[in-house]
Amino acid sequence: MNCYSAVRLTAGGKRGDLRRLLAASLVSRSRRWGGAQRSPSGVGQTNGAQRSRVRARDHRLPHRPSPSETNVQSRLARRRLWATEAAEATHFRPPAESNRPRRWAAVSARSPFASAPPSSFHPVVEKLSVVGTVSSAGGVPTSTPTPSSNQPPLFVALFDYDARTDEDLSFKKNELLEVLNGMQGDWWYARSKSTGKTGYIPSNYVAKEKSIDAQPWYFGKMRRIEAEKLLLMSMNEHGNFLVRDSESRENDFSLSVRDGSTVKHYRIRQMDHGGYFIARRTPFATLPELIEHYRHSADGLCVALNQPAARIENPETATFTYDDQWEVDRRQLRLLRQIGAGQFGEVWEGRWNNAAVAVKKLKPGSADAGDFLAEAQIMKRFRHKRLLQLYAVCTKDEPLLIVTELMDENLVQFLQGRGRDTSMAGLAEIGAQIAAGMSYLEEKNFIHRDLAARNILVSRNCTVKIADFGLARVIKEHEYEARLGARFPIKWTAPEAANYNRFTIKSDVWSFGILLTELVTYGRLPYPGMTNAEVLHQVEQGYRMPCPQGCPHVLYEIMLQCWHKDPERRPTFETLQWKLEDLFSQDGSDYKEAAMSY
């Protein structure tokens, strides 16, 4: 398309209008850029209006337009109106004045306006030159605006997923999926490229093809201590690595590498122009190029990168199914075997459609049904990786049921069984996980009231989750008084709660200190040899459990802080989390620099 064609279209295709538009553009260019204008006699003269404006500018006086300028501006205003009407007639709307590009980029080289600054009708010319061609003969577009591609975006599966309902789509890791519903919400409607089947998929199980998120070594937002724990697991070897978002520097990354029995960390910095480097002498255009380089050669790192770290668990879905069912038909549930019993009911392993779940049902007479439902209402609102996730409830018939994710065992069973050989550092790390979940409750202004090892569940990968919110209540004021006759475990309960029925988040901190003794003694009951009455009396008199055998003194100091008589002087769960993480954190807080290699 040439510019003459566009102007003919814009001005309605009349030759006289074309001349007037060209003249208006030349006047506009002369006025804006201070160029010389030829008089009719051909003698170069400086425009009088231009001289007047220059003098006014030089003397800092307001410019008063001359009559000739007023006429030109009036004509230009009419031309703008014609250009706008012409654009609307052809379904092309010129951009707003504030959004107009500073440089006139899309103009034909043959156009007489190629060197001119933008005029009032140039945006129309620019728009037409981009979206379609214009016939110089008829003045109408020969094609419609180029439509956007209808090809659905392609995603790659990061994990295996087994469909939980008939509407879900099962897929395997690395399978390619086309997203069909615009990527809205936590569940997307997708089609498998390999099978052609369609269904709903959890959005956090997939990543855009060829993106950083799709790389097997990229773990996104992960704490350094979590990276160390993962890399030191038995399934990872010397040289295995991962890349995670930097905790302290926005837009930067951290490279964590297993080096024998330790983990080294390196900062990956981003340059202003978009490149990446660990050592300034060796920059790379992209992050994958950087990783590929260090997989072939250590080049100053502690070791050449081997394989990406193994992922030990799939992420939780935002809801159990895409339609987020709350009340489900109990006929969809199958109870297989009883795996536990608590204050409010029994816990069973079961199946819901195709998924393994835990089903908690109320024992007759064990508690009020309203309390049972309150537990479900609270759990439903929580979303944290250290809290047990609630899927659904059955409340229309007896017994009442709560459906949750299934875990292997509770913390007491773990400590007395397969976790018997866990190191003190590993025990402290479990304590940090629990503190992280309690910090979330603290932030949400909730209390647990029954925090103990029996209510902490452990997965096969030794990650833990806080369960049994049967006594939890939202704090609408700073604190509240418990109902008369309510039951609570004496040996885990803070003295102000046990003696005066007053609970705050600080009473949970006391209970957490008792839980730490369960950890370091591998599941032993607290206050061994003492009755509940003796515990109440002795604690009120200032008695505190002595340091357990084999417990580091620094860890015992944390316990004593949790048991401070003044609740306000007990630490927050956020403080407890970082104290436990730092207690046995490797290599201090420093990151390594790539050594010079020759």
From TrEMBL:
<comment type="similarity">
    <text>Belongs to the protein kinase superfamily. Tyr protein kinase family. SRC subfamily.</text>
</comment>
<feature type="compositionally biased region" description="Polar residues">
    <location>
        <begin position="38"/>
        <end position="50"/>
    </location>
</feature>
<keyword id="KW-0829">Tyrosine-protein kinase</keyword>
<dbReference type="GO" id="GO:0004715">
    <property type="term" value="F:non-membrane spanning protein tyrosine kinase activity"/>
</dbReference>
<feature type="domain" description="Protein kinase">
    <location>
        <begin position="333"/>
        <end position="585"/>
    </location>
</feature>
<dbReference type="InterPro" id="IPR020635">
    <property type="entry name" value="Tyr_kinase_cat_dom"/>
</dbReference>
<protein>
    <recommendedName>
        <fullName>Tyrosine-protein kinase</fullName>
        <ecNumber>2.7.10.2</ecNumber>
    </recommendedName>
</protein>
<dbReference type="InterPro" id="IPR036860">
    <property type="entry name" value="SH2_dom_sf"/>
</dbReference>
<keyword id="KW-0808">Transferase</keyword>
<dbReference type="Pfam" id="PF00017">
    <property type="entry name" value="SH2"/>
</dbReference>
<dbReference type="InterPro" id="IPR036028">
    <property type="entry name" value="SH3-like_dom_sf"/>
</dbReference>
<keyword id="KW-0547">Nucleotide-binding</keyword>
<dbReference type="InterPro" id="IPR008266">
    <property type="entry name" value="Tyr_kinase_AS"/>
</dbReference>
<dbReference type="GO" id="GO:0048565">
    <property type="term" value="P:digestive tract development"/>
</dbReference>
<dbReference type="Pfam" id="PF00018">
    <property type="entry name" value="SH3_1"/>
</dbReference>
<dbReference type="InterPro" id="IPR011009">
    <property type="entry name" value="Kinase-like_dom_sf"/>
</dbReference>
<feature type="binding site">
    <location>
        <position position="361"/>
    </location>
    <ligand>
        <name>ATP</name>
    </ligand>
</feature>
<dbReference type="InterPro" id="IPR050198">
    <property type="entry name" value="Non-receptor_tyrosine_kinases"/>
</dbReference>
<dbReference type="InterPro" id="IPR001452">
    <property type="entry name" value="SH3_domain"/>
</dbReference>
<dbReference type="InterPro" id="IPR001245">
    <property type="entry name" value="Ser-Thr/Tyr_kinase_cat_dom"/>
</dbReference>
<feature type="compositionally biased region" description="Basic residues">
    <location>
        <begin position="52"/>
        <end position="63"/>
    </location>
</feature>
<feature type="region of interest" description="Disordered">
    <location>
        <begin position="30"/>
        <end position="75"/>
    </location>
</feature>
<dbReference type="InterPro" id="IPR000980">
    <property type="entry name" value="SH2"/>
</dbReference>
<keyword id="KW-0728">SH3 domain</keyword>
<dbReference type="Pfam" id="PF07714">
    <property type="entry name" value="PK_Tyr_Ser-Thr"/>
</dbReference>
<feature type="domain" description="SH3">
    <location>
        <begin position="150"/>
        <end position="211"/>
    </location>
</feature>
<dbReference type="GO" id="GO:0005524">
    <property type="term" value="F:ATP binding"/>
</dbReference>
<keyword id="KW-0418">Kinase</keyword>
<keyword id="KW-0727">SH2 domain</keyword>
<dbReference type="InterPro" id="IPR000719">
    <property type="entry name" value="Prot_kinase_dom"/>
</dbReference>
<feature type="domain" description="SH2">
    <location>
        <begin position="217"/>
        <end position="309"/>
    </location>
</feature>
<dbReference type="InterPro" id="IPR017441">
    <property type="entry name" value="Protein_kinase_ATP_BS"/>
</dbReference>
<keyword id="KW-0067">ATP-binding</keyword>
